[in-house]
Structures are given as C-alpha cells and as structure tokens.
Design goal:
The radius of gyration is 29 Å and the shape is rod-shaped. It is of the alpha+beta class and 184 residues long. It has a 4-stranded antiparallel β-sheet with strand order 1-4-3-2. The protein is built from 4 helices and 4 strands; from the N terminus they run ααβαβββα.
Length: 184
C-alpha cells in the first residue's frame, strides 16, 4: 500500500509541475493582453474625448472600472518587478504590443497595484489597474481538485489492498494451523 501511495504521490507531484509549466506562458499572455486592451481603450478614449470632458472621463473610469490614470513624473519611485518568469513574460509581451519604452510594475510611489506606463503624443502617463481586472489564476483550483483525486486514489488503493489481504491473511493463518497439526 505504501509503495502504491508513494507512486501516486510522485505521479501527482509530476503532474503539478507539468501543469504549472504548461499554464505559465498562456496565463502571462492572457494577462498582458488584458492590460494592453485596457491601455489602448483608455488611450483612445482620452484622445477622442473633448478636452473639457477628459477629467469627467477619468473620474468615471476610476469610479466604474477602478482604472486610474496618472501623469508620469521624473521622480516617480517605481519598484522593480520580482524575479519571476511570469512577470518577465508579461513585460516582454507588453513591450512588444505597447512599445519598448513601456514599463510595468507592482508598485509606484509606494502605491501597490498593477502599474503600466504609456504615452499620448509624447506625454508619459501611468495607469493603475485593480487586480480584479486581471485574469483569475484557476491553477490553484486545479491543484485542489488534483489533491482531492490523489486522496481518493490513495483511499481506494488502501481499500483494494485491504480487501486482497484479508483472504491472504486467512490462508496464512490456516496454513500455520495446519503446520501445527490443527484442523482449520
């Protein structure tokens, strides 16, 4: 039973690694595409809005969507991204679609969030996106389901082994009794 359980656990760990690796790039591309869409739509709305109505537009974006646009300043304190393959893929895709000068950070001037830089006619801006705008990472749910399946598989394996061992124990006991000369 222990060998079967160990084999199942090792297979599950291998499955988790394969799952993590296979979902990393598609998830990063999906996140960057959502950011790019939000930046492009906001940029287009600001460019096409009447100058007198731009502040109202920004207020409505902040109130309804949680998207904030700030003017970039030379003394902005932009926190570097954590060293992660996921963030590197997102940044690479953002720079490919929005331009090589695009910056991406998880904190700016001490405010935590998803920050992306963009420009309008040479003027630099920062957009703050709420984390709820990004694609939900469903991999933790899959890990939970995988753990449940693993537990069920180990339980079923234990029941099968226990069911097979019961008659074998009876045969062993009977053989021992016959060896002692006792009729089982």
């Amino acid at each position: 039973v222990l060998l079967i359980a160990l084999l199942l656990i090792l297979a599950h760990i291998a499955w988790l690694q394969i799952f993590r690796i296979s979902t990393l790039e598609p998830r990063a591309r999906q996140v960057s595409q959502q950011i790019v869409s939000t930046v492009n739509l906001t940029r287009a709305a600001l460019i096409s809005a009447e100058p007198a109505k731009r502040y109202a537009l920004l207020g409505e974006l902040a109130a309804r969507e949680g998207v904030q646009v700030h003017v970039a300043k030379p003394d902005d304190d932009v926190t570097a991204l954590p060293k992660s393959e996921f963030y590197e893929l997102v940044l690479e895709d953002l720079q490919l679609q929005l331009g090589p000068d695009t910056q991406f950070s998880l904190a700016r001037n001490g405010v935590v969030g998803i920050w992306v830089s963009f420009d309008i006619d040479g003027d630099e801006y920062w957009m703050l996106l709420p984390e709820t705008h990004l694609v939900d990472d469903a991999s933790l749910r899959w890990v939970g389901w995988g753990a449940l399946v693993l537990l069920l598989a180990v339980a079923v394996a234990w029941l099968i082994v226990a069911r097979i061992n019961r008659p074998l124990k009876a045969l062993t006991l009977g053989a021992e009794q016959m060896g002692k000369g006792v009729n089982p």
